[in-house]
Specification:
alpha/beta; Serine Threonine Protein Phosphatase 5, Tetratricopeptide repeat; 2 domains; 10 helices; binds 2-acetamido-2-deoxy-beta-D-glucopyranose; Tetratricopeptide repeat domain 4; Hsp90 protein binding; TPR repeat
Length: about 290
């Protein structure tokens, strides 16, 4: 057994025997193909017409998924014996796999380009609306070089991270994931796609059509709620008008979208909790 298998044997002695076997065998096989390939290369060097070595080399390249090399070795062998069955078979298989690989690579590239293009359109839409994306303070260099999108749109780590991203709908309107925080109860609501022209009150009416189970005092009535957003840079809170649309709020001169997810805080109007929460804070009320 080659030496490089030993680390696996040692580090996995705690594991099940089955696991040990799988890990060590797959690691060894790759290694074995490499060393078998080296043997074949040496043999071919000594005797270029060594057909068996060429077949072995071609097979090793197949196992190592280097199809171009496998084809090259087959070609070389077929120069010696154009009817060699194994070589004809391996070349056909390598050819097929190589083309599949190239096709996949092309597809991936097209997809990547498409995604990049969509991202640029999205960013243009955000910029056009004068919506400001907050930047992570640690990435000032990137910020300048236009890494902005990268940083700010990939942010929200929910279970449905892929779903919950700002996107343009068919009508060219932005839909944002929006987070509602209820500090009094340490609760949240998450709206996956908040249409930019919807008003906050519309969502509150739906969200609080039934009082949530945590609202034991039954006071979270849509018309009694006050909404705020936080301006971290200035350590200030801004009250927002629930009759306003998401777009209007996002266009506020002090609104910065963080982590791709607009966030608002909701309080019950003049509740003891909100009084306490805002005491000593800089608050811009309507
Ligand atoms: C295949 O092997 C050749 C020669 O060793 C190498 O140059 C090439 O990068 C390899 N290709 C892949 C896909 O591993
Ligand atoms: C998460 O995504 C799945 C599949 O798209 C969807 O059915 C589900 O409702 C989503 N969950 C949330 C909380 O958005």
């Amino acid at each position: 057994m080659p030496v490089f298998c030993l680390p696996f044997l040692i580090s996995y002695t705690w594991g099940s025997r089955a696991l040990l076997k799988v890990l060590s065998s797959s690691a060894c096989f790759i290694g074995n193909y490499r060393s078998a390939l080296n043997d074949a290369i040496q043999a071919k060097k000594l005797k270029p017409t060594h057909l068996k070595a060429i077949i072995r080399g071609a097979l090793c390249h197949m196992e190592l998924k280097n199809f171009s090399e496998a084809i090259a070795w087959c070609e070389e062998g077929l120069q010696i014996d154009s009817k060699e069955k194994k070589l004809v078979e391996v070349r056909a298989k390598a050819d097929k796999l190589k083309r599949a690989e190239e096709r996949d690579a092309r597809k991936a590239k097209v997809m990547e380009k498409k995604e990049q293009c969509q991202k640029e359109i999205l960013l243009a839409a955000i910029k056009e609306r004068n919506i400001k994306l907050a930047l992570k303070p640690s990435n000032e260099e990137e910020e300048i070089s236009g890494g902005l999108a990268e940083i700010s749109l990939d942010g929200f780590h929910s279970d449905n991270a892929t779903e919950a991203k700002v996107h343009l709908d068919a009508d060219g309107n932005l839909n944002w994931p929006v987070l509602f925080l209820y500090p009094e109860h340490e609760q949240t609501d998450f709206i996956v796609a908040f249409h930019e022209n919807s008003r906050f009150i519309d969502h509150l009416m739906v969200m609080f059509a039934e009082l949530p189970p945590w609202d034991l005092e039954r006071k979270y009535l849509p018309c009694d709620l006050e909404l705020y957003f936080e301006d971290e840079e200035r350590a200030a809170m801004y009250q927002l008008n629930p009759e306003h649309t998401l777009l209007q709020v996002l266009q506020h001169k002090r609104y910065f979208v963080k982590a791709g997810t607009p966030t608002v805080l909701a309080f019950v109007k003049s509740s003891p909790f909100s009084k306490k929460y805002f005491s000593g804070k800089k608050v811009h009320r309507l």
